[in-house]
Amino acid sequence: MEYIKYKRGHSSDIQRGTSCKGVSNNIIKKFSITGKIGITIVFLFLLIGIFSNCISLHPYNVPSGSSLESPSLVHWLGTDDLGIDLWAQICFGARVSIMVGFGTALLAGLGGSLIGIFSGYFGGLTDKVIMRLTDMMIVLPDLPVMIVLGAFFGPSVRNIIIVLALFSWTAPARIVRSKVISVKEEKYVTAAKSYGANFWHLTIRHFLPNILPIVMVSIIQLVSRAIVAEAGLAFLGLGDPTSKSWGLVLNHAINFRGIYFTDYWKWWVVSPIAAITLLVTAMAFIGRDVEKIVNSKI
Amino acid sequence: MGKGLLKKASEYLITFFIIITLNFFIPRLMPGDPFTFLSSEEGQITVTYTEEQIDKYKAYYGLDKPLFVQYASYITNLFKGNLGYSIYYNDSVVRIIGKRIPWTVSIVIISIILSCLVGTILGSWSAWHRNGIPDKVIYAVMIPISEIPSFLIGILFLFILAAKQGIFPLSGGISTFAEYNNPAEKAVDIIHHAVLPVLTLSMTRLGEFYLLSRNSMVSVLSKDYIRTAKAKGLNKVRIIFRHALKNAMLPIVTRVFLSLGAIFGGAILVENVFSYPGLGRLMREAVMVRDYVLIQGIFIFMAVMVLTMNLLADILYVKLDPRVS
């Protein structure tokens, strides 16, 4: 009996080890062309965000040329009305967007899956209350609440991340909950329980490996949602006024008198729009591919 | 079925109460003070009201009473349909909101109908030609479209169609100081102003409805009775719209109601892009001037709208699908 148990555990460990390796090798191969393009674009934006100090030749908050210069070799994307280099603003905006996007997604994904595990594992009243709460959050019109909450918290980047996460945890929580409920009934979990495994042991050994792929999918989907929401808030002028995000650049551009009757929009308005669109679409492509891969595994 | 609906309705009622409670507390915890704002000149911090005046106004609006008393009077007023009096606009909130509702609701409804119709037709067509070239092309175009946020599409439309080409007006819901010879002329002017906001809003929802109807259609088209219909030699249009769409409609119809919250959110942004005189623009102005009462009123209105539509979606789902009990 002891021997059998050992052998079983051993073989399953080996299996898990190989399958993990196999997944990481296959995942890149399994991505479609659009997915690969998406990964490249997001990776580029990550680099731009991290190394924005080195990439941009000019400061993002101090004028470095005359106002409203068109794109040239000195100012790659031209300058805005104050003479601030737009390429620098886009680079530093990438930092804000990536921070908000990934920060929110990680916070909401981890928090949401923890809540989901609790809800699915313990069931009963906990589950009922949490599910009612998620029902409510789904029904709430999120942008109006975000505007009100953002105004109340004070619009710093950290607060925006918290507010966005407050509105994003429900999706991962729901998915994780239903997965945990199904895994809970598996024979090996019952067996582990009968050996005296407690909640944390079960979570780490059995639930996490099962929910990790689906949590990853929902985290990736949350990233672009958060980026769009932040850009929207900043565009309305309700974001963090000190951080140069893409939405804020747009806000300034639109509020510039005469933007409609001149050619300035060609670089001032188009570049932040292009940046947001590129990043969001790239994230969407990745999300779609990862979802397909995870679904085909299940 | 009646019991289930009752349970759903009571859930929505609880949600509603939590929303109005939140709605009461959040603006009161916001930094800033409407009286400081009101009493200072634009762009300056100098306060021209005296302490006594501010105290008098606070007493007048009931802002000096304990929170609980304020809460109780807020609830009773709410049920009387009295949303309060806007400090900034000098008018009752219900009247201010009432003036803006037609603008927002009309563009929201028209764009939902448009995106649902076009999305469903494209989706059905795509599903029929599944994996063919037209399907792949539409699919590849739709995915980025469904991802690009509404206000970006709006800004591009604004610059290309309104500012450069001059086909549509730049802003507003109606020409200012215009005189009309007859109602038809006025209607044309309003429609002319509404085209871009509606187009923008429907573009952003189009991808969602397209993907949904395509998925739904693909699963219905693989059913046996569709093969029977094909074998009978019925033509394509008849099979898609008479036989398949009826069964594929279910998720689409409920999605129409469920996407209302998102489309209201989109409308807030789009209205601000086009300076459209709806609720979204009003809400931004209200937050900017810290008009508590007005923010609360707009928020309550939107929440009630969205909650009602979600409840309707639940009811419709039960009515449309006999398998659900």
What does this structure look like?
The complex is a heterodimer of chains A (298) and B (325). In chain A, helix 8 runs antiparallel to helix 10 (199-235). Chain A is 77% helix and 0% strand. Chain A contains 13 helices and no strands. Chain A has one domain: MetI-like (MetI-like fold), CATH 1.10.3720. By secondary structure, chain B is mainly alpha-helical. Chain B is 76% helix and 1% strand. Chain B has 13 helices and 2 strands. A two-stranded antiparallel ribbon of chain B has the order 1-2. The longest helix of chain B has 39 residues, at 183-221. Chain B is globular, with a radius of gyration of 24 Å. The model of chain B has no long low-confidence stretch (mean pLDDT 82). The chains are: A mainly alpha (298), B mainly alpha (325). The A-B interface holds A 132, 135-136, 139-145, 147-149, 151-152, 154, 224, 228, 231-232, 235-238, 250, 254, 260-261, 265, 269, 273, 276-277, 280-281, 284-285, 288 and B 11-12, 14-15, 18-19, 26-27, 29-31, 143-144, 146-149, 151-152, 155-156, 158-159, 162-163, 170, 261-262, 264-266, 268-269, 272-273, 283-284, 287-288, 290, 295, 298-299, 302-303, 306-307, 310.
Strand order of the largest sheet of chain B: 1-2
SS class of chain A: mainly alpha
Largest sheet of chain A: none
State the shape of chain B. Answer: globular
Element order, helices and strands of chain B?
HHHHEEHHHHHHHHH
Low-confidence sequence ranges of chain A: 1-22
Tally of helical segments of chain B = 13
Distance between the termini of chain B: 6 Å
User: What is the assigned CATH homologous superfamily of chain A?
Assistant: MetI-like
Largest sheet of chain B: 2 strands, antiparallel
At the fold tier of CATH, the topology name of chain A is: MetI-like fold
Q: Multimeric state of these chains?
A: heterodimer
| Greatest contact between two chains | A-B, 38 and 48 residues
Output the CATH class name of chain A: Mainly Alpha
Mean pLDDT of chain B: 82
Backbone shape of chain A: elongated
The helix-strand sequence of chain A is HHHHHHHHHHHHH
Spatial gap, N to C terminus of chain A: 32 Å
- Number of DSSP strands of chain B? 2
**Would you tell me the structural class of the helices and strands of chain B?**
mainly alpha
